[in-house]
Design goal:
Blueprint (H helix, E strand, L loop, with lengths): L1 H49 L15 H15 L4 H25 L1
Length: 110
């Protein structure tokens, strides 16, 4: 059961981002981005990590980060729908550099 919930939890965030987030941002610009944070990212984080019995199994050597799951899900969607590889590679590079810099910053802070 934990494998099924891990797959569900990992796929839920990219799915909601692709379906809901773009329309919120198009309609309300920056306010829509903050609204998306409140109605998408927060509740999905709670389901995946915050409750007593989280959806994503976080034990042993295998850990799934919501950012990684989102990146893989959205990258897969774009590649399957025929996105331009150059733009996809640019976005992937930007995400990897941002994650790397955030990791360094967190290591320095803690």
């Amino acid at each position: 059961m934990s494998i099924l919930l891990t797959l569900l939890g990992s796929g839920l965030l990219p799915f909601l981002i692709l379906i809901v987030m773009g329309s919120l941002i198009r309609k309300w610009q920056v306010k829509g981005g903050f609204l998306a944070l409140l109605v998408i990212i927060g509740p999905v984080w709670y389901l995946n990590h915050g409750q007593i019995s989280p959806w994503i199994a976080q034990y042993g050597p295998h850990q799934i980060d919501m950012g990684l799951a989102t990146g893989v899900g959205i990258l897969t969607y774009h590649l399957l729908t025929g996105a331009r590889w150059k733009k996809t590679l640019f976005n992937l590079s930007a995400a990897l550099i941002g994650g790397f810099l955030a990791g360094i910053l967190l290591a320095l802070i803690s």
